[in-house]
Request: fold
Amino acid sequence: MQHHQEFFEKFLGHKADSFTALPQSGSSRINYIVSSEGKKYVVTYNENNLENEAFFYFSNLFDGLNLNTPKILLINSERDLYVQEFLGNQTLSEVISKEGLSERVKDLVKKSLKALFELQTKTLGKVDFRNSFEYESYDDLPITHDLYYFKNFLIDVLEIEYHKSTLLKEFKRISEIIQKLEPKVLMIRDFQSRNILVNENDEVFFIDYQSAMEGPAGYDVISFLYQAKANFPSDFKEEMLDYYLSFWENGSERDALKESFNWMKMMRFLQVLGAYGFRGLIQRKSHFLASLFQGIENIYELNQTWNQISQNFPELYFLILRLKSPEVRSKIEDLIID
Reply:
């Protein structure tokens, strides 16, 4: 920490008034909030240089397009320590936790969706996805990874029975369908309320976009509106989906986007459950454990209301049913207590 503070103070030219590390969540990055002479900054340390380079690339691209993301003010020679613009004291997730679905929260959600659409459309044709961190596009590799993440870190950890070859064949067919979904845009990948900052003027700003890739436009919208922790009411989620769709003037693109929503729900819900299993049940991080049962509720509700899963992927369908059984709930509760 001392080295990190010295780096910042050299940039500043004098001592900082405060230099405070933020709690870490799902990432190994260390973020500090720094105050000096009435101004605030964010200092970030991350040993993963590939991740850093992706973040620097997208930050510069977004800055050039006047999008609502932080400016990078300084990078050290090792490119593992950098200073960012400070954009807000609260995340949208914190506002939601305090206020629930207040009129202010509804307005912030709308602002976030409008800003997402602007980012998706302004970056069309301007991104070199070779600068992406792990994946250039949401193709077979990340899709298969997400499905196996769910299987390996939730289903197998909970020792839920399934027919292995049947499930893996279903995963393969799911991947083929997902890869064909349109329209394709820059997909932030982890677009949720804890990665949206809110300033004192209720302007919204996006952070944590270093995993961006090319992918279906519907993925980020579903990630945002259907995140387990926010637990928005169904009618509000549907209203906001319609609000987002209203930005798309091209009728065929709008129809394709609407058609993709349930597929995106399925993929996001399964991927998130894998994350809850790994980060929560294995790494014991409370933020992820707290949302596990709501995450199961989300995929179970889709399983019951959207017939594509039961008709075309019966092994996955019955696996999701087992997730809601009293036996599995008891197993999860025992693991949480342990």
Summary: The longest helix spans residues 251-282. The two ends are 33 Å apart (CA to CA). The chain has a mean pLDDT of 95. The chain has 14 helices and ten strands.
